[in-house]
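In this section we walk through a basic example: taking a raw amino acid sequence and producing a predicted 3D structure, encoded as discrete structure tokens. The instruction is simple. Fold the sequence below.
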Amino acid sequence: MRIVLVHQFYLRPGEGGGSRFNEMVRWWQARGHEVRVIAGQVSYTSGDRAQDLGVLHEEDGEHGERVYRVYTPGTYQKGVLGRAWSVGGFALGAMGVFARECLRWADVVVVTSPPLTVGVFPLWIKVLSGWRLPVAFEVRDLWPESAVATGALAEGSAMTRALYGLEALAYRVSDVVVPLTPAIARSIVTRELKDAASVIEIPNGADEYMLEPVVKGEAREQLREEYGWGDKFVVLYAGAHGVANDLVQVLDAAQAAMEAHLGDEILWVLVGDGPQKRFLKKESEDRGLSNVEWRASVGRVEVKRLFDAADCGVAVLKRTETFKTVYPNKIFDTMSRGRPVCFGVDGVARELIEGAGAGLFFEPGDGEDFFRQVNYLRSHPEEAQHMGVLGRELVQARFSRRMLALEYLDVLGALVGDVL
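The resulting token sequence is shown next.
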């Protein structure tokens, strides 16, 4: 098959962020399929725009795929209007690139959201191709619902109503909708935006490199020495620093640890970037939190090393009903490296982790409870280690990206077969 992927935040080699489709493309190419990717020029985590790429930059991806980097305004992290300008600019440019470079070449198109502005693509593709090309529309997060839940959009506003209309259009025009969790699938079907037979869940998961053997023993101690962590119990958050992540609760937990006279025993390490990072660092300094360490966004190899050296991983999101529908990337990264998950995300994520016995839940937004759960893991090392083993077994059995990539190929192959 010749597959076109429309993904604004498709990563470059070594770039930090969500690598779901980099791994999908890896396995699709390995199976003999050809892939072209239409991507943006702005990093999701840092908001930085790659320089000197012009209106359109063509490059080869690390797995042999052809990548078209479309001009994207560098305003992604400059408020709601800046973000709208950035994602809207990408969508407009990407539509032109698809028409010129991919329309006659493609057998099937995958469009992944958010941002929801790519919701224009299913109709655009159908009209341009005379309704010939099949489209799979992936839903990684429910938009605009998530934006309303975090306060980025006003409920009932004209913009919000328009985006709900765009969401419905994208689902209905696409041949299949691919949600990442059962809760997202239920929402789409319950709202009668797509029939259940055309909603096919393919969850998030762990990249194959994250399932390589875990570093242990002396090699792990050397890693910890390299990071300067000594014998502290290290709590690792690796991901975006945005409003939705609500990382103030990490600072609250660190403060609770200091008040419990455990500031020298537990270290809270935050790795990544995002629009809230500057505020969070200042807040940490103002509180005098000497038990919080900040690290820049890193590539996937370094992420793996960090998890191997840490004692537990963290998954946190803002307390909203909407986020009960998601599986944060962080839970799979943590479990794949055999670490227990301390998580403040209710709903399907909680069902998954507690069902596997792979971690401890704390009430979202409750720093005291967060600290208590972390301290329990610190005080019960054998139990914490067993949680890590169970989590890794779960990922190996059900959430390997290689396995999920092949499932995706089955879905796309069926779409192409129906057309032919």
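Looking at the output, two observations stand out. The chain has two domains: 2-205+400-419, 208-398. Residues 79-102 form the longest helix (24 residues). In the next section we compare this with other chains.
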